[in-house]
Design brief:
CATH superfamily of the largest domain in chain B: P-loop containing nucleotide triphosphate hydrolases
CATH class of the largest domain in chain A: Mainly Alpha
Number of strands of chain A: 0
CATH class of the largest domain in chain B: Alpha Beta
Oligomer: heterotrimer
Shape of chain A: globular
Helix content of chain A: over 70%
Number of helices of chain A: 15
Order of helices and strands of chain B: EEEHEEHEHHHHHEHEHEEHHEEH
Largest sheet of chain A: none
Chains: A mainly alpha (336), B alpha/beta (338), C alpha+beta (532)
Order of helices and strands of chain A: HHHHHHHHHHHHHHH
Number of strands of chain B: 12
Structural class of chain A: mainly alpha
Distance between the termini of chain B: 28 Å
Mean pLDDT of chain B: 87
CATH topology of the largest domain in chain A: MetI-like fold
Shape of chain B: globular
Mean pLDDT of chain A: 86
Largest interface: A-C, 58 and 74 residues
Strand order of the largest sheet of chain B: 6-7-8-3-9-10-12-11
CATH architecture of the largest domain in chain B: 3-Layer(aba) Sandwich
Number of helices of chain B: 12
Low-confidence stretches of chain A: none
CATH architecture of the largest domain in chain A: Orthogonal Bundle
Strand content of chain B: 15-25%
Radius of gyration of chain A: 24 Å
Largest sheet of chain B: 8 strands, mixed
Strand content of chain A: under 5%
Low-confidence stretches of chain B: 328-338
Structural class of chain B: alpha/beta
C-alpha cells in the first residue's frame, strides 16, 4: 500500500509541473502588465518601469519560469501584486476556510446522498424513487446562487435561525488560530461559544455547496445499488438468512459505492470551483474569492500558486480515492 | 410419517411486461428424511423458481398462486419474510448455489461472510460474544478440514477470488452445513467445475449427507450426476412434475416420453446427438393439454385436449402422461369441474 | 477607480430579496450598541503607503492621521496633526508646524522625526500614494529642523503638493523598524498591521485581507472625544461581495452600512424598511468615455464632435441610473473650483451628430470602420453605458463593438497609443482635491502613457496653461488658468464627459452624527453615535 501511494505520487509530480507550465504560458499570453498591477492606479510610468525590472518581468519568459520554479521549490510563492502580501501567507489563512467548507459540504452530500441513493434503489420505480429522481435533476439544475439566496431569505431573514454571511459573528472574538481551521481552533481553545457560532455560520454555505454534489451522489449510489442487487451473491446472502438491513447497508453497499467514490473524487474539484460562487454570496473568507480577485486584477503570483495548490489537492484527493477503492475492493489493490 | 419436505400442487406466476408467465404449474415432490432427491429438467423449465419458492425468495414480480410447501410439518408459505430469514434459512435449510464465484461477496473475506451466517443462525450453545465467535471459527475450521480445504485457518482470512473453483464450492458447502440444517438445497452446484472436481465434490456430499443425517434436494440437468448421487428423482418439464420415483427404477425404465427423450440425449447413453426437437414452450402461452405434446414423439390427438392426470407407471414412478392412465374425455371434464 | 465589482449581476434577485422582506416580518438582530459593523470594502492591504484608493482613504481616516485633512462638503483642507504651515514665495519651501504632545497608538511620541520617516518611506516604496511627490520631492529634502517643525524643499514649484498632503499617513517608525526584513521598510509587516495614531487602532489578529478587520477606539487620540460623548468603540469591517447579501445584511441589522455603490434599484426597498435608509451624497467621481485621439477617425475634430453629440446623457442618467448622478459636461467634477461655468457642454442631438459626421467624412475620416469600445466586464455600469451608446450610433450607421475587458488589462494597454482601445469607459475618483487630479493629469501631454492620459490629447496651449497652473501656489491665481485650459479642451472634445457621481449608501437608522466629505466619502467613524 505504501508502494502504491509512492508510485502514484511520483506520477503526479510531472502532471503538476506540466500544469504549472501551461498556466504560466497562458498567464503570459494575456497582454496585461503585472508591473502596472503592482504599482497601482496612481502610479507613473517610471514607477512601473522600476517595478518591472525589480520583479524580473522584463526577462525572457523561459528564464522567468525557471526562476519561479526555483522559488516554488523553496516554498516561496512570491508576493501578491494586489495585496503586497506573501502569497504563502494569504493561502495559509484562506485555504483552511475553503477546505473546511468543502469537507462539510462533501460530508453532507455523502451522509445524506448515499442513504437516499440506497432508498431510491430499494424502492426502484416506486414513488420514493421518482421523488428522488426529480430532486436530483433539480439539484443539478438549480443554480447555486439562487439556492443560496433562497436559503438566506428563509433561514436568515424570515426565520432568523442562521446567520446570513461570514464565518463568525462580528461581536464574537476570534479564537487563537493554531491550525487555521476555525472550527478546529475553537475546539482547541475550548471556545464553545465560538464553536457553536462557527457551526451556525457553516450551515447555509455548506448546504448550498452540498446540493449539486448531493444529486450526483444520489444518482450514482442508486445506480450502483440497483446494479449490485442484480448480483447472484445478493440472492445467496438472502438465501443464507442475512439480516436485511445488514445485507443492504454493509454487504450490498460496499459493492455499490465504487462509482460513487470516484464521483466524490471528481466532485471535490467541482466543489472547490463551485465554492467560488458560494464563498462570494456568503462572504466566506476562502480561496475562491481570493482567486477571483487575482484573475480580475491579473495577479500572476496568486493565479500560479492557486493553480498549483488546487492541482495538488485534487491529485491528493484522487490518490485517496484510489486508496479507498483498494480498501473497498481487495481485487483492485492486487491489480495495483 | 410425513416426508421432510413435501411440495404439493405448487403454482407460481411472474408478471412481465408481455403478460403473466406461468413458471410453475402444478409441481409436486416429496423428500424423505436422510435421502437425496434429484430434480431434473432442461434450462427454463422452472427448477430455479422451484428453489426460490421453497426458500421464499421469489423475484419482486413473482407470486405463489396455489399450492403448499410442507417442511418438518409446517407450511413454509404461511411464514413471513422475517420469519423465514430468522428461523428457516441456514438454520433449518442450507443452500448451495450454482456458481460459487458469483455467489460469494467479492469484497468481503470468506471468514467474515461465513461467520455472518453463523452469527445469526448457528444453534445456541450458551456462549456469547467473542466466546461464541471463537466456537463458530472452530466449527468452521472443522468443517473446512472435513471438506479437504487446505489451510482452513488461512482460508477464512482470504477473499473469494483467491480460491480455485472447486475450493470455493467446498467453502459454500461448509457454509450451508455450518448451522446444522435438516435440509440442504443444492442448485446445480457442480456445473461450473471440471469433471474430476465434480466427482470429488459429489462424493463428499454423499458422505456428508450420510454422516450428518441431513436430506438433500439436488437440482441438476445432468442425469449422470443423478445416477451417481441421488436416491429419488423428480423430472420437471415446463413448470410441471412429469415423472417422479426412485432413481433406479426411472433410469432403468423411464416412463414419460420426456424422461426418455432426456435420457436419450445424455452423452453416456446417447444413441444419437440429435437432442429433443423443438424447445421448452414459453410460460407466457403454454400449449393446451400436455405441455410436452408439441415435442413428443409419441403424441396422440387426445394429448392436447387437456391436462393429463398423475398415474403410476409399471416401474412404480408417478407419471403425468395419458399412456399410463385409463384417461377419458369425461374424466377430464370432471377434473375441470372439481 | 477600483477594479473590484460584483462577481455576478443579480439586481433582480436583490430586488426580489428586498421586496420579500418589506412584506414579511423583520427579525430584529441583537445589535451591539458600541460596535459599528461596516460594510465598506477593505483596501487590498493595510499599508497606507502602498495602497491609495477609496477603500484605503476610508481606512486611513479612521486608523491614521495626516498633517492636514479634508473635512466638510464641499471639502476644505484643514490643519490636523499640523497646526499651520507656511510656503515660500517661490513655492519651493514648505514648513509644517506640528501640534505638541502627539502620540502613536503605542504611546510613543509623534514628532517631526516620524513625519520625515513617513514621507521618506512613501518615496522609497514609490507605490501609489507617492505619485504626486516622486517628481518634485527628494527624500533628503524632507527634514526636521526641530521636533515640531517639518520642512520640505521641492525641486520645482508644484501646487498640488499641498492638495496631496492629506494622502500621506504618518506612521510609527519604531514598530515598523522592529519588523523590517531585508530593508523592505516593513512593507510585508505593515500590510497586515497598524502603526498609526488615528482615532481607531487596528487589531491585527482580527484581520483577514479583503474579508474582515476589527478596529478599537483610541481613547488617547489627539483630538480627544469631548465632541462625541458616546462614540463607536469598535469598528467591525465586514465587507460583503454580493450586493444581494449586502442589502439583506443591512435589512436584518447585521450590517450598519453598505458600501457607497448601492445599485439604484435597491434605494426604494431600503427606504421602505423600518430599519435602514439610503443616504445620497454628491461626490467627485466623473464617468468618462475615452477616445483614442491618435487613431482615425478620432484624430478628426468633427468626428469627435459627432460622438459627443450621439451619447444620450439624460437617458443614461435618468433611465439607467434612476437619476442618481448629475450631468457633468466638464472634464472634471462640476463642484470643484476651476470650472469655466460659462462654457457649454455638448448635448444629445442626433441631428447635429449627423451634420458633424458628414463633415468628418468629407474630411476623409473613416466613420464607417468598425469601432471598438472596451468595458470593464465586472462593472455593470460601464457595460450599460457602452450598450446605450452602441444603440444610438447604430442609428447613425456607425458600427460600435462592445468588448469586455478588465481593469488591469485596460490600464496596461493604455501605456501606448497603439494598444489603447478606440474607446473605453472609466471613472476618475478623487485622489486629491485639485484640478490636477483631473484635467492636469488627463490632458497635459507629459502624462501620455498613463491610463489617466489615455486620450493621447496634445494641445500646446493647453500644456502651457496646465503647467503654469501647476507651478503657482495660490488658488485664486490658478483658477483662471484652469478655466482657460478647460475651455480649450472642451472645444477640442477629446473625450465624452458624462456625469459626476452621486454615492448611494444604505445605513442603519441607529447610526447618528455622520459627516460627509467627498474625500473618504463619509467614512470617518469618529463622529458617529449608535442609538440604543
Amino acid at each position: 500500500m505504501l508502494r502504491f501511494v509512492l508510485r502514484r505520487t511520483a506520477l503526479v509530480l510531472p502532471s503538476l509541473l506540466g500544469l504549472l507550465l501551461v498556466t504560466f504560458l497562458l498567464i503570459h499570453a494575456v497582454p496585461s502588465d503585472p508591473a502596472a498591477a503592482l504599482a497601482g492606479d496612481a502610479a507613473t510610468p517610471e514607477q512601473i518601469a522600476r517595478l518591472r525590472h525589480q520583479y524580473g518581468f522584463d526577462r525572457p519568459i523561459f528564464e522567468q519560469f525557471l526562476l519561479y520554479l526555483d522559488k516554488v521549490a523553496h516554498l516561496d510563492f512570491g508576493e501578491s501584486a494586489f495585496s503586497h502580501r506573501p502569497v504563502t501567507l494569504d493561502i495559509a489563512q484562506r485555504l483552511p476556510a475553503t477546505l473546511e467548507l468543502t469537507f462539510c459540504a462533501l460530508a453532507l452530500s455523502v451522509f445524506v446522498g448515499v442513504p437516499l441513493g440506497v432508498m431510491a434503489a430499494l424502492n426502484h420505480n416506486a414513488w420514493p424513487d421518482y421523488l428522488l429522481r426529480i430532486f436530483s435533476v433539480l439539484g443539478i439544475a438549480m443554480a447555486a446562487f439562487w439556492v443560496a439566496i433562497m436559503l438566506q431569505l428563509l433561514f436568515s431573514m424570515q426565520l432568523g435561525w442562521l446567520p446570513l454571511r461570514g464565518e463568525l459573528s462580528s461581536t464574537m472574538a476570534q479564537p487563537p488560530r493554531a491550525t487555521g481551521f476555525l472550527v478546529v481552533d475553537c475546539l482547541i481553545a475550548g471556545r464553545w461559544d465560538a464553536f457553536a457560532d462557527a457551526l451556525r455560520h457553516l450551515a447555509l454555505p455548506a448546504v448550498t455547496l452540498a446540493l449539486g454534489g448531493l444529486a450526483t451522489i444520489v444518482r450514482f449510489t442508486r445506480a450502483g445499488v440497483l446494479d449490485t442487487l442484480q448480483q447472484d451473491f445478493v440472492f445467496y446472502e438472502r438465501a443464507m438468512g442475512y439480516r436485511w438491513l445488514r445485507l443492504v447497508w454493509i454487504f450490498v453497499l460496499r459493492n455499490s459505492v465504487t462509482a460513487t467514490v470516484t464521483q466524490i473524487g471528481l466532485l471535490f474539484g467541482g466543489l472547490i470551483a463551485g465554492g467560488v460562487v458560494v464563498e462570494a454570496i456568503f462572504d466566506w473568507p476562502g480561496i475562491g474569492s481570493y482567486t477571483v480577485q487575482a484573475i480580475l486584477t491579473g495577479d500572476r503570483q496568486v493565479m500560479l500558486a492557486v493553480t498549483l495548490l488546487v492541482g495538488t489537492v485534487y491529485a491528493a484527493v484522487n490518490i485517496l480515492v484510489d486508496l479507498v477503492h483498494g480498501l473497498l475492493d481487495p481485487r483492485l489493490m492486487e491489480q495495483g | 410419517m410425513m416426508p421432510l419436505l413435501s411440495v404439493r400442487g405448487l403454482k407460481v406466476t411472474i408478471r412481465t411486461d408481455e403478460g403473466t408467465a406461468q413458471v410453475l404449474d402444478d409441481v409436486g415432490l416429496d423428500l424423505e428424511r436422510g435421502r437425496i432427491l434429484g430434480v431434473v429438467g432442461e434450462s427454463g423449465c422452472g427448477k430455479s423458481t422451484l428453489i426460490r419458492a421453497i426458500m421464499g425468495i421469489l423475484p419482486r414480480a413473482g407470486a405463489v398462486e396455489r399450492g403448499e410447501i410442507w417442511f418438518e410439518g409446517e407450511n413454509l408459505l404461511s411464514f413471513s419474510e422475517a420469519e423465514l430469514a430468522r428461523d428457516v434459512r441456514s438454520s433449518r435449510i442450507g443452500f448451495i448455489p450454482q456458481d460459487p464465484l458469483l455467489a460469494l461477496n467479492p469484497v468481503f473475506k470468506v471468514g467474515s461472510q461465513l461467520l455472518e451466517v453463523m452469527r445469526w443462525h448457528a444453534p445456541s450453545d450458551g456462549t456469547r460474544g467473542s466466546e461464541r465467535r471463537k466456537r463458530h471459527v472452530g466449527r468452521l475450521i472443522g468443517l473446512l478440514k472435513r471438506l479437504q480445504v487446505p489451510d482452513p485457518e488461512g482460508a477464512l482470512e482470504r477473499y473469494p477470488h483467491q480460491f480455485s473453483g472447486g475450493q470455493r464450492q467446498r467453502l459454500l458447502i461448509a457454509a450451508a452445513l455450518a448451522c446444522s440444517p435438516r435440509l440442504l438445497i443444492a442448485d446445480e452446484p457442480t456445473t461450473a467445475l471440471d469433471v474430476t472436481t465434480q466427482h470429488q465434490i459429489l462424493l463428499l456430499l454423499r458422505e456428508l449427507v450420510a454422516e450428518l443425517a441431513v436430506s438433500l434436494l439436488f437440482v441438476t440437468h445432468d442425469f449422470g450426476v443423478v445416477a451417481e448421487l441421488c436416491d429419488d428423482l423428480c423430472v420437471i418439464y415446463a413448470g410441471q412434475t412429469v415423472e417422479s420415483g426412485p432413481v433406479r427404477s426411472i433410469l432403468d425404465s423411464p416412463a414419460h416420453p420426456y424422461t426418455r427423450a432426456l435420457l436419450a440425449c445424455h452423452p453416456d447413453r446417447a444413441t444419437s446427438f440429435r437432442g429433443i426437437p423443438g424447445s421448452v414452450p414459453s410460460p407466457l402461452a403454454p400449449p393446451p393439454g400436455c405441455r410436452f405434446a408439441p415435442r413428443c414423439g409419441d403424441v396422440r390427438a387426445i394429448c392436447s385436449a387437456g391436462n393429463p392426470p398423475q398415474a403410476r407407471a409399471e416401474s412404480g414412478a408417478e407419471v403425468r402422461c395419458v399412456q399410463y392412465s385409463d384417461w377419458s374425455a369425461d374424466l377430464l371434464v370432471r377434473s375441470h369441474e372439481s | 477607480m477600483s477594479a473590484s465589482g460584483p462577481l455576478l449581476h443579480r439586481r433582480q434577485l436583490g430586488g426580489l430579496a428586498a421586496g420579500a422582506l418589506a412584506a414579511g416580518a423583520l427579525p430584529a438582530k441583537a445589535a451591539d450598541a458600541s460596535t459599528f459593523v461596516n460594510g465598506w470594502a477593505l483596501p487590498a492591504n493595510l499599508d497606507p503607503h502602498q495602497i491609495f484608493d477609496v477603500p484605503m482613504q476610508a481606512l486611513m481616516l479612521n486608523a491614521y492621521d495626516t498633517l492636514y485633512r479634508y473635512e466638510g462638503d464641499p471639502p476644505k483642507i484643514v490643519p490636523w496633526l499640523a497646526e499651520s504651515h507656511t510656503v515660500s514665495d517661490d513655492g519651493l519651501q514648505w514648513e509644517f508646524k506640528l501640534r505638541s504632545g502627539l502620540k502613536f497608538h503605542d504611546g510613543s511620541p509623534l514628532t517631526s522625526e516620524e513625519v520625515v520617516y513617513s514621507f521618506r518611506r512613501v518615496l522609497a516604496l514609490a507605490l501609489a500614494p507617492a505619485g504626486a511627490f516622486l517628481k518634485v520631492l527628494k527624500p533628503e529634502n524632507v527634514t526636521a529642523p526641530d521636533p515640531l517643525l517639518v520642512r520640505f524643499k521641492l525641486e520645482t514649484s508644484y501646487a498640488p503638493f499641498f492638495a496631496a498632503i492629506p494622502s500621506i499617513c504618518i506612521v510609527n517608525p519604531r514598530v515598523i523598524k522592529a519588523n523590517e526584513k531585508d530593508g523592505d521598510w516593513g512593507k510585508t509587516w505593515l500590510a497586515s498591521n497598524g502603526a498609526g495614531s488615528g482615532a481607531y487602532r487596528i487589531i491585527p489578529t482580527g484581520y483577514r485581507p479583503l474579508e474582515y478587520l476589527d478596529l478599537e477606539i483610541n481613547d488617547g487620540h489627539f483630538l480627544g472625544w469631548a465632541d462625541n460623548p458616546k462614540p463607536v468603540r469598535k469598528i467591525a469591517y465586514r465587507p460583503t461581495k454580493e450586493s444581494s447579501t449586502r442589502v439583506l445584511a443591512l435589512l436584518n441589522g447585521s450590517l450598519d452600512c453598505t458600501d457607497n455603490a448601492l445599485p439604484a434599484d435597491q434605494v426604494d426597498p431600503i427606504n421602505a424598511s423600518k430599519i435602514a435608509q439610503v443616504v445620497k451624497d454628491t461626490i467627485m467621481r466623473t464617468y468618462i468615455i475615452r477616445m483614442n485621439n491618435t487613431k482615425p477617425p478620432f484624430n478628426n475634430l468633427n468626428a469627435r464632435l459627432c460622438f459627443a453629440h450621439a451619447f444620450n446623457y439624460s437617458g443614461f442618467i435618468n433611465e439607467v441610473l434612476n437619476g442618481y448622478a448629475t450631468r457633468d459636461p466638464y472634464p472634471m467634477p462640476d463642484n470643484l473650483w476651476g470650472i469655466p461655468t460659462d462654457a457649454k457642454g455638448y448635448d444629445y442631438d442626433l441631428k447635429k451628430a449627423k451634420e458633424y459626421m458628414a463633415k468628418a467624412i468629407a474630411e476623409g475620416a473613416p466613420m464607417k470602420r468598425p469601432i471598438e469600445i472596451h468595458v470593464q466586464t465586472e462593472n455593470e455600469q460601464s457595460v450599460q453605458g457602452a450598450q446605450l451608446f452602441q444603440a444610438d450610433l447604430a442609428q447613425l450607421g456607425i458600427n460600435l463593438k462592445v468588448v469586455g475587458d478588465t481593469w488591469p488589462n485596460l490600464t496596461s494597454s493604455a501605456a501606448k497609443p497603439d494598444s489603447t482601445p478606440d474607446m473605453w469607459v472609466h471613472w476618475v475618483s478623487t485622489y486629491f482635491v485639485d484640478p490636477e487630479n483631473w484635467v492636469g493629469q488627463m490632458y497635459d501631454s507629459q502624462f501620455h502613457g498613463t491610463w489617466k492620459a489615455s486620450a493621447y490629447y496634445k494641445n500646446d496651449a493647453v500644456d502651457a496653461l496646465l503647467r503654469k497652473a501647476r507651478g503657482l501656489v495660490k488658488q485664486e491665481d490658478r483658477a483662471p488658468l484652469y478655466q482657460e485650459a478647460i475651455r480649450k479642451i472642451m472645444a477640442d472634445s477629446p473625450d465624452i464627459w458624462i456625469y459626476n457621481s452621486i454615492s448611494l449608501m444604505g445605513i442603519n437608522k441607529r447610526v447618528k452624527g455622520r459627516r460627509f466629505c467627498t474625500v473618504g466619502q463619509g467614512s470617518e467613524v469618529r463622529w458617529l453615535t449608535l442609538d440604543g
